[in-house]
Write a structure and sequence with these properties.
By secondary structure, this protein is α/β, with parallel strands linked by helices. It has helices at about 10-25, 35-45, 65-75, 90-100, 110-125, 140-145, 150-160, 165-170, 175-190, 195-205, and strands at about 5-10, 30-35, 55, 80-85, 105. Strands 2-1-3-4-5 form a 5-stranded parallel sheet, with helices on both faces. Strand 3, helix 3 (about 65-75) and strand 4 form a beta-alpha-beta unit. The chain is elongated.
Length: about 210
């Protein structure tokens, strides 16, 4: 049986081309194309068959990607969603992952890698692309967690919020310079290179619960 896919993208030419591409893949079939998140929500509310995978753009009118993810997290938290967008800024990537997005791809991705990403999300539950992570290279959960101090865990949790690093420093009653030290220490210990990497690590190891 084919895995069903819903496409949510306001660019008609792109979404139709994407539909043709997905339908050309073995074991995949597009069962819905929606111009924005509100159309997807309407589909879900009408008790129509739910797709196995949603391919979700970020910038859309009426209801954009983050708003759609927030609604799915609240109402259908098990729905698998793969972001497919041109937005590659760290803040957007981090926010979408925190909302439960299972992977984040840029639209210039190679078709073979795109197919692999969809397979991974269907089979394994997530796929972290190069746009997201060089991120989690850590495979040793226990050892990595043992090496984190209580204050580092506190910093990690706050770093995964919407706070700026300056606000984190105020919350922890520490100087910005000390916070910079925590950040660099965690980058080294967890083998990540960005705040996005910290968020992904926290999610993967259930330090941050979605």
């Amino acid at each position: 049986m084919s895995n069903t896919v819903a496409i949510v993208d306001d660019h008609t030419l792109f979404s139709q081309s994407l539909k043709n591409l997905v339908n050309s893949f073995e074991n995949y079939e597009v069962n819905g194309v929606h111009k924005n998140g509100q159309e997807l929500v309407t589909h879900f509310k009408a008790n129509q068959p739910k797709p196995d995978l949603v391919l979700l753009d970020i910038r859309m009118p009426i209801m954009d990607g983050p708003e759609t993810m927030a609604w799915l997290k609240e109402n259908f938290p098990d729905q698998k969603v793969l972001a497919l967008t041109m937005e590659d800024d760290e803040e957007t990537v981090t926010f979408m992952v925190k909302l439960g997005c299972r992977g984040y791809l840029l639209k210039d991705i190679d078709p073979d890698e795109f197919k692999f990403a969809m397979d991974e999300v269907i089979k394994e539950g997530f796929f972290y692309s190069d746009a997201v992570s060089e991120a989690i290279k850590n495979k040793d959960k226990e050892n990595k967690l043992v090496n984190l101090t209580k204050r580092e865990l506190e910093f990690l949790s706050l770093a995964c919020s919407e706070m700026t690093y300056k606000e984190v420093a105020n919350e922890m009653n520490l100087s910005p310079k000390t916070i910079d030290g925590y950040r660099e220490s965690l980058f080294q210990k967890l083998n990540v290179r960005s705040r996005t990497g910290l968020v992904l690590y926290a999610i993967k190891h259930r330090i941050l619960l979605l």
